[in-house]
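Figure 2 data, in text form.
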Amino acid sequence: MKVLFIDAKSKVDSIKGLNKLKIKEKSIGLIGTVQTLFLLDSIKNYLVEKGHEVHIGGQVVGCNASNAIKINKKVDSFLFIGSGMFHPIELLDDTEVKSYYKFNPITLTFSKLMKSEVELMRKQKMAKLSKFYMSEKIGVAVSTKPGQENLGAALKFIKDIDKKAYIFVSNNVDINRLEDFNDIEYWVNTACPRLEEKGMISLRDIPNK
């Protein structure tokens, strides 16, 4: 199949609202979505003028925060340029920094992720893990999409666990369709971790998998 990739940028020609960036930490890791990458240099220059040490990580996606992880030891806070919680949650999962901020260049809103939000997410993860351990019949969802396909990991996983496990392969992991298999007690997701629902846990969140 022939594929044509077209760059998409945020509908922002110039940076406004940077005076709202009130970050107390000295060292900042700057990351964003693919649509906002072209803004990072300008934001870095502004923050450096305010006395901060800024490291540009680059692009993060909902299931991959490797660009943030590579500068994790150099910074004591992260500033995400974009919208929503889809991408920042990945940072909370994969980095050890204590302070996380986000700035939406379209709505010009700035906020800090509160410790209570982080703790709630961690408690939810532990609850999912507990339900997984108590379940005997497991469904393992595998996507065939490039970059999300983890069939090898799924096969190794069902071989190593002491549970009845079945692999379900599809291009699109449709959460609603999984409800058709009501004999499955709990689902393990091997695709994008942001697909998780209350009856599903990401494979990477299971210790010693």
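Caption note: The chain has two domains: 18-113, 124-205.
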